[in-house]
Each structure stands twice: as structure tokens, then as C-alpha cells.
Amino acid sequence: MDYYGAVISGTAEETRSREDVRRLRRSLGWERGGAGVLDEGRRASAVLLVLLQGPSGELDILFTKRPSQMVHHGGEVCFVGGSSDPSDESLLATALREAQEEMGIVPEDVEVLGTLDTERPKTTPFVIQPFVGLLQAPYDFQPNASEIAEVLVVPLSVVQNPASFREEVWLKGGELERERYFAYGPHLIWGATARILGQFLNFLRDEDLTLAGGLYGG
Fold it and tell me: In terms of CATH, what superfamily is 2-159?
């Protein structure tokens, strides 16, 4: 699957976008989560929130949908990522390895911008370290059919639109819980993925980074 990117013309727009990516990289930093992640009796894992520059020059976010027959998280929409392996040098190495195994993303092709705060789901024994990375298009994804049922490339502007955000009370484990999620067509982005996405969107809002014109390296 090829996704093609285009650079927006115009000196003022390009200058603003370059400044945005510098601010994003500087603001995300490397001091979030991570520390002490193995001290809680939880299994370490990592995900990569991939920002992909789409055909219009605006940014998309890469999601994948798990096959329904998977024992864990079957049929759910999520970021690429998974459990830490003893051979991984770091949680960043975990995220990049999983991205390559699941989607054929070469680690050297990802510009890692920084981290978000760790996520600790109530219903699983994992602690998740999210990383944010920029992937330039065009890119030839190679989805692993045993792990990926569908590839979703969702415009950042769509999830930034309040109309995509929902909140309901769901019955989970015999208890009523308030669940916040995002809707994209027939797909629901919920659980830890929605919380990580919400954290990223809140970060962009707080830093006044709309990223509407796309990101530029450099």
C-alpha cells in the first residue's frame, strides 16, 4: 500500500511548519514515562504513534486493526507496538521492532520526535510507553496478515474535530464505566489507544500546535 506525500508550497507556510516540528520535538522531549517502568509488577510494552504526511501535505495518523480471531485485543484498532523482548535494547527499540514486524516499517525511516506519558491499563498487566514518530511518504507498507486485518490512515484533522469524540457508559467486567472514544467511519478507537491519542491531541492543543500544514524535517 503506497501513501504519497506532497510538500505545501509557499515560504511562509513552510517556515511555520518547520518551526512547528522543531517545537514538537523540543516539547515532547525524552523525559516522560519510561523511568521505573519495570518496577510495578507489570510487563513493559511500547507503541509508536506514527505521523504520516499524506497526499495533501497534511498529517495522517497510522492505526491498525487486529484480526478478530486474536486472543488479545482481537478486532481492536490500535497503534503499532507490543511487548518488550529481552533482545530489545530499550522500549524505543521495542516500538520500532514491532512497527517493522507488523507493518514493514524500516526503523531508520522513522524520525522519532519524542515520548508521551506512560499508559497503565486497568484490565491488562502491561505498562505502555508511547513514542511519536514521523514517517515520510511515499511508503510501501507490508502488513503482516497474522497481526493486521486492516490498515487505517486517519487524517489528524479528523480526530482533532470534536465531532469525532464520544463518551458513553459501558458495562465492563460487570461494572459500569465511563468510556471515551473516537469514531472514524465504522471504526471505534477506544481503550488505551484512545487515551494515548487523547493525550497527544491535548498536547498539541496546549502547545498551540495545529500541525495543519504538515511537518517538515530539518
Answer: Nucleoside Triphosphate Pyrophosphohydrolase (3.90.79.10)
